[in-house]
Amino acid sequence: MRGTPLLIVFEGIDFSGKRTQAELLAEYLKSKGYSISLYSFPDYTTTTGKILEEYLTMKRNLDSRIVAMLYAINRLEKLKEIEKDIEENKIIIFDRYIYSNMAYQMANGLDLEWLRMLDIYMPRPDLVIFLKISPEEALKRKGECDRYEKLEFLRKVERIYEKMANGEIKTNVKWYIVDGSKSIGEIHKKVVEIVEKFL
Ligand code: ATM
User: Fold this and answer.
1) Closest of 85, 88, 101, 102 to residue 39, by C-alpha
2) CA 2 to ligand 1 centroid distance, Å
3) Does the reported pTM lie above 0.70?
4) Which tens digit of pLDDT belongs to each residue from 125-137?
5) Which residues does the chain have with pLDDT short of 50?
């Protein structure tokens, strides 16, 4: 059992492999005997998650400010659970977290400081792993397109992620950039190398 919790975030544009890498890391750490919680945001099973799913699949139209708030509420719906994990000193892995709202909703024209405010009650992670792939590569990997999956838009999102990763946009957390165009195995190896520094 660890003496302190560890909060690890995966971020990146769509199809960068976050889900796969988050799951592989969780399996790896479990096999080493660590107690793990894995969260994927948005969580589509909650009240707000269902509304967000309808929005993303174009079944519902909503003002982008409302959508940004729904993403933040979606995380708040899980906060009690996350706080319990923290108390139990677990390793917590997030497949998307507050930085997704900053990247996607700033790209939608919303104010950075307002977006930050929406998530001030969420715990600060120890590290962010940014899986970097080009928007062109992302769209090559895609099947069905959802609302945000347009080249120009993804370029904007990617640029905002880069600014967070290089410190131009302050996030108060350490970012690691991993080349998401590599094979699943190579990326996993890199991710493990990074995370092991925190164990
Ligand atoms: P997933 O495809 O990872 O389920 O996420 C759905 C979208 O929600 C994703 N873009 N696309 N396509 C990014 C967006 N998003 C936000 O805009 N803000 C957030 O806080 C989160 C968690 C996701």
Assistant:
1) 85
2) 31
3) yes
4) 999 999 999 998 8
5) none
pLDDT tens track for 17-43? 999 999 999 999 999 999 999 999 999
66 lies in which domain range?
Answer: 6-198
Enter the tokens of residue 15. 């199809």
User: Are the C-beta atoms of 16 and 157 separated by less than 8 Å?
Assistant: no
Does the Cβ of 148 fall within 6 Å of ligand 1?
Answer: yes
- Is there an atom of ligand 1 within 6 Å of 41 CB? yes
Pocket of ligand 1 contains residue 56 by CB under 6 Å: yes
- Asked if the structure places residue 143 within a domain, the reply is yes
For ligand 1, is residue 94 a contact (CB within 6 Å)? no
Residue closest via CA to ligand 1's atom 8 equals 42
Let me know if residue 87 belongs to a domain: yes
CATH of residue 166: 3.40.50.300
In-domain check, residue 1: no
Q: Which of 112, 110, 156, 113 is nearest to 148 (CA)?
A: 156
E strand intervals along 3-120: 6-11, 36-40, 91-95
Q: What is the number of structural domains in the chain?
A: 1
